[in-house]
Amino acid sequence: MTPITEVEGRRVVLSNLEKVLHPATGFTKGELLHYYATTADALLPHLRDRPVSFLRYPDGPGGQVFFTKNVPPGTPDWVTTAEVRRMEGPARMVLVQDLASLMWASNQVAEFHTPQWTVDSADEADRLVFDLDPGAPATIVECCEVARWLRERLAADGIEAYAKTSGSKGLHLLAAVRGASSERVSEYAKELAVEAETALPRQVVHRMNRSLRPGKVFVDWSQNAARKTTAAPYTLRARAEPTVSAPVTWAEVEECASPAQLVFHAPDIAPRLRDHGDLLAPLLAPEAAHSLP
C-alpha cells in the first residue's frame, strides 16, 4: 500500500520509501524525504516564488536522469503553478511555496533548480550567480582561490557575495541585486569573468570550450540568463553519495586545502544549520540587494 501522510492539511502520497537512491551510502528515499522535511525552514525561502525545474533521478543517479520543467502529470491541484514565458518557450511550472508542496516535490526524487528571478518580477533579476566549475586536475580548492578574487572584485562595486558548494565538483557565488534585467546582469557577470581570466590567466577561463578547461576554473557567468537555472541552496544532487549544495562561510572558503573539506552530505546539514543558521539568509532581505554599477 502506498503511504499517504497529511502535511499542513494536505494529503501527500509518499512512495517507495525503502528504495536506495544514493548507492554509495545506501541512502534511501525515506531518508531523502526526512532530509527535506527537516531542512524546509532554510530551503523554502530560497524556492518560494521561483519556478522550479526538476532534475529527476527516480531510480538513483545510475538510472534515467532527466529534466522536467512543465508541471508533471498528476500534480495535485493544491500545488501552486504559474505560466512562465522567460524560459525556453512558454511553460506552466511548479512553485514550491510551502512544506506540503515541498514534500510532494521531494517524492518526485529531484534536484531543485531555480532561475535568478521570481514570477512576480520576471523582467528584473534579483540574483547574480557565478558557477565555478573546475577542470581536472583542478578541484574546488582552485575554485576557492578564484572565489576570493571575485568576492573582492564584487566588493569594489559595493556588492556582497556569498558562497555555497555546488554539491558536485565546484562552488557557486551569489549576490542579491536589484534594478537590472537578466540581460544586464549577464553582461556584468561576463565582464567580471573576463577580468578574472585576465588577472588569473593560469587559473581561470571564461569561455565554455571544454578544450580550454583542463587545470583551470571555468567561471560560468551564463546562468544569469533569464532562461537558465542553478541548483538551489540545500538541494540534494543526483550523485552516488547524498551530497548537498551547501552554503559555506568565507572562512571555510579561505581555509580549503583539500576537496574533502567542502563536501557535505544530507546528515551534515542539520548540525550546520544549528551552528550557522542559513548562511544565505542575507540574500532574502530586500535591503541586501545591490544596484549594478
From TrEMBL:
Uppermost EC category: ligase
Gene3D superfamilies (alphabetical): DNA primase, PRIM domain (3.90.920.10)
CDD domains named among the record's database cross-references: MtLigD_Pol_like (cd04863)
Top-rank taxon, per record: Bacteria
GO terms assigned for molecular function: DNA ligase (ATP) activity
Presence of keyword Ligase: yes
E.C. no: 6.5.1.1
Domain annotation DNA ligase D polymerase: ranges: 28-279
UniProt key word Ligase: yes
Annotated keywords: Ligase
Pfam family, one: LigD_Prim-Pol
PANTHER family: BIFUNCTIONAL NON-HOMOLOGOUS END JOINING PROTEIN LIGD
Protein name: Non-homologous end-joining DNA ligase
Gene: ligD
